[in-house]
Amino acid sequence: MKNRKFVNSDIEPKKNGIHHTNGYRSSENIIKSKLTNEHQDNNVATDKYKSIHDSKESFEEAPLITACLTYFGFYLLMIIGYINQLFFEPKVATEKNRDGYVPLFDSFERFYLRYVYRRVKDCWNRPICSCPADTLVLKDRITPDFGWSFEFTGTTTKCLNLGSYNYLGFAQTSGPCAEDSIKSIEKYGIATCNARRELGTNALHIELEELTAKFFGVEDAIVFGMGFATNALNLPSLLSPGCLVVSDEKNHASIILGLRLSGATIKVYKHNNVKHMEKVIVDSIAYGQKNGKPWKKILIILEGVFSMEGSIVKLPQIVEIKKKYGAYIYLDEAHSIGATGSHGRGVTDFYGVDPKDIDILMGTFTKSFGSAGGYIAGSKSLINFLRANSHAHCYASSMAPAVTQQILTSMKIIMGLDGTNEGKKRIDQLARNTRYFRKRLAQIGVITYGHEDSPVVPMLVYLFSKIGAVVRTLTTRNIAVVGAGFPATPIMEGRIRFCLSAAHSKDQLDYALSVIDEIGDKLGLKYSRKPKDPNPIEY
Amino acid sequence: MLQAESSPYIFSVLYDIIFQAPTYVIFLELSLLLLVIWIIIHKQSNGGKHLTQKQKEEIIKNWVSEPLVAEIDENHPALQNNHIVDGPIGKFITVDGIKCLNMATHNYLGLEEYPKIKENAINCIHKYGVGSCGPRGFYGTVDVHLELEERLAKFMDQEEAVVYSYAFSTVASAIPAYCKRTDIIFADECINFAIQKGIDASRSKVVYFKHNDMRDLEKKLQEQAKADQKNPKKAAKTRRFLIVEGIYMNTGEMCPLRELVELRAKYKLRLFLDETVSFGTIGKSGHGITELLCVDIKEVDLISASLENAVESIGGFCVGSHFIVEHQRLSGLGYCFSASQPPLLTQAAISALDIFEQEPRIFEQLNDVAEKVDEQFRYFTKLELKGHPLSPVKHLYLKHVDDLEESEKILRKIADECMKKGLAVVAAEYLPIEKFPPKRSLRITVNRLLTADDISNAYKIIEEVSKSIA
Fold first, then answer.
1. ipTM of this predicted structure
2. pTM for the complete prediction?
3. Are B309 and A178 inside 8 Å of each other by CB?
4. Domains in chain B, start-ordered, CATH in brackets?
5. Is B358 touching A (CB cutoff 8 A)?
6. B303 and B275 in contact (C-beta within 8 Å)?
7. B139 and A3 in contact by Cβ < 8 A?
8. For residue A487, is pLDDT > 50?
């Protein structure tokens, strides 16, 4: 019933929303909506945000010649791969004792992994033998046979860590988090060996759920032992066939898996494109399900900070759309919790959106909290529903005590409950590092994607082979970064991703930037045609 | 010139063709043409409808969403059963402040006894911190992960192992890495929920056979073989899988692995074996059901197991040949897209493996206790014991109640009462969306450290409570 009232009170602004391009409203309409809409303040604020934040996000297009070369380079690699396959026996294991069976693997996939991916295979899955803090220690390995196999040399290399999701620098081997975690092992042991619904709940889990709810200022929260599973094992219980999911095209694999398991209809909108999302919703409601019935409910699923794009979701506009049509929002804050907002509470904090306007707040503890696991926070009725229906709550093992304690201590530090301003210092340091690093990169002339306040910074290198070249060159200069190429990104958009951390110092960033500047000339990474800021960037 | 002359000629030829052709041909072609046009228009106009802006607004105005979630009754057991555990979990467990004999949690081997595991885990925090802050691909591979994988492969006498950070996601990711939409999976109907979800994610066709019923399985395989003969082209592209558990979590029964292996070879199936319960519990050195039944491990294509039960850590792993297992490193969703296992939990698993290798007598002890429990627990007045004698997981079913809801209520009451009397047992929790809802039971786990006195005490408590409640 509550929903019906809601939809009706929103009819007036709804019409306007459809007709006006860009989703902007004329002043007259704003006055109208002020009279009819109880969320008037939000709407005016939203318009302000739109103009401010759109200019802060950038997705510069590649020069045409680069685009052509990228495709050409990729197909060249494929052709050489096919020729290679004709002449050289692959050095891989084969299936034994299964004669007459249908082959287990798809042939194109096999070809791609053997003859294209293998060339740059050394850039991923690199083992480390230290804490993933501001620096990390790589375990050196060499390949004697062009990527078919690897051998460890026994040596190690210390590198500046621009690859781990250690946004607030809580990946530490000492300090309050580590100490408390150790105490929790002494008190509770390693694991609980049972699911939450049975006998897997201890006082730490209860405390963490209460603290998480308090952190966001919502009624309740529930925590799970794995971030990936939080999406994959809860979305199916929230959705059923007949529900519509409007999902961002760049959403994470765990969301896509959860949706696949749910049986709901999925419609994808262009990345962070609010206009397209609104169109999808309008058309979907208007045309209903395939069988002619109206949709049961509509859930908009998006991430706070997109881990491959570095963009920040346009939350205020989406909240407005959600209210207009009576949809619900599922916000995955895996990369934004802790890392954005002046209190570290994620994108709601960043935009000043009321967290209660987000129906389902989801996130992980892997990144900013330096631990593992995930949470869902929201209204009491939502969390009660999950306690009764969540797959993970019923069947999967509960969170390990040390992991729970690490989150508790780091969350308390972020909230300032430890009596120091350590948390605030870390949040500010990360924000400063982010702005500085992004601005300096722009000055250097490389193309970066995303929002200027996003600590995930993808630098576009386009060509598949350049991903490998950059990662390898940076490693020789003691900088560890992550590369991403097809199929994780479109063929066109090979990229290098930097993840900033509060643990990084200005000197470390300056060193990284000077190296990027240098190799940018050597490897030809300075694609940007935007005017450059000639003045030195302030830290 | 040529064109001008030829066009009237073409028309006359067309005229001839149309009038000479039999009427049914014209009719057929016309209807085909109409069909094509209809399909094209139908596709463009969004389900045969085209709405004007006004109509759309009208529909949107009237559309009412269902509430996000259904309201859950306050008396729902999930909200009521809030037992809180305190302190370490070993032979005893403290539930709601009462020290109970532990027959509820899955730490069968009682590794709490070995302080080395905790010590090593603590040292691990000193070296690596708590979290790994990244997936395996992006600097989340810590050297302890590699060590654990190597050790597990060696322990199971297989070529390669791959470690996941959560047991549920292990098998649920491994299955869809191999099984695709066009494939067929034969699975036991009592498989645990994680496997069910893995099968759902694969979107393969799935055929369930009756629990441990080899005749039923063979019948279904023969039916499939017949269907294949009718469509050999399709059959030549369809992969077939057989998915079973070593010891079934939901029934405590052991699978007839030898017969399964025979059927695997006869019908060209690939066999996936989930050893969530059987790894580290049965077999002379804890290798699981292949060791116990003396089946060559190479006959099984993939073994998945949990590190959350006998190993008493968090995580899961798959072992098998290079050819099979390597594939998961790029296709196992829970492996590629999730943060890796926190190093301290990896180290705890390594330390547990050390104990497995150094003291294989613990498996014998566990099996002895399991058999003793099996002997004693057969004689309840109101409860019936099911499960293999060697299994560390056993189920007690109500003898006289079949209704799921009612039995669930009674069993929860029994479990709660037992806990008050100093014995921790649980009424196994299942969600209503289970494919084949398992019969409700008290799930009993066996701990290696239980003495004969403990077992008879436990028997007395359960007998007394169940008699008064059921």
1. 0.88
2. 0.88
3. no
4. 114-358 (3.40.640.10)
5. no
6. yes
7. no
8. yes
